[in-house]
Write a structure and sequence with these properties.
By secondary structure, the chain is mainly alpha-helical. The chain has a single domain, classed as Arc Repressor Mutant, subunit A (Orthogonal Bundle), CATH 1.10.10. The chain has helices spanning 6-20, 28-35, 39-51, 76-84, 108-124, 127-130, 147-157, and strands at 55-58, 64-67. A two-stranded antiparallel ribbon has the order 1-2. Helix 1 packs across helix 4 (76-84) and helix 2 (28-35) crosses helix 3. The longest helix has 17 residues, at 108-124. It is globular, with a radius of gyration of 20 Å. The chain starts with 5 loop residues before the first helix and ends in a 5-residue tail after the last helix.
Length: 162
């Protein structure tokens, strides 16, 4: 099972809250109360997001945290990378691979392609998209249909309607 860590999930929650409240700076205490997370966890996540260049912070009585860019310019992939490090589904696509099978592995190229597709999909989802609640209507997050569905649609009626 592929699963991002809890801190990454918390990071997306914190970033979403900050994106919805861009008009002011927020202290770690305020954020902890607003999203109902323990203060030490909030501080740890804010530090990682700041080091990743996604937040600006200012010390002092009038200080606090704020997004470094517009929520439409920050991708979910950037948030994940700031907390977890580079997105790598398998060790062989990681920059720090120590896999003994790598020199003679026949599937490494395909894992690289899969990893690139997942990274691209996560990069297409912006923080602003995470703020829009999904109802029975149109979702702000769009993904491309699989190639087999596209081929089927084209073969059935000569045009792509998907």
């Amino acid at each position: 099972m592929l699963r991002m860590g809890k801190l990454t999930d918390y990071g997306i929650v914190l970033m979403s809250y900050l994106a919805s409240q861009t008009y002011q700076k927020h202290s770690a205490h305020t954020l902890s109360d607003a999203v109902q997370m323990p203060l030490p966890t909030v501080r740890k996540v804010l530090k990682a997001l700041s080091q990743g260049g996604l937040l600006t912070s200012e010390r002092g009585a009038q200080g606090g945290y704020n997004l470094s860019r517009n929520p439409k310019q920050i991708s979910v992939a950037e948030i994940i990378t700031a907390i977890e490090g580079p997105i790598a589904l398998t060790e062989c696509v990681s920059t720090e691979s120590h896999c003994e099978q790598e020199p003679h592995c026949d599937v490494q190229t395909n894992w690289t392609r899969i990893n690139n597709a997942v990274s691209h999909a996560l990069d297409e989802v912006k923080l602003a998209d995470m703020l829009v609640p999904h109802t029975s209507g149109e979702s702000p997050i769009h993904f491309y249909p699989s190639a087999s569905k596209v081929e089927l649609a084209i073969l059935q009626d000569g045009e792509f309607h998907g």
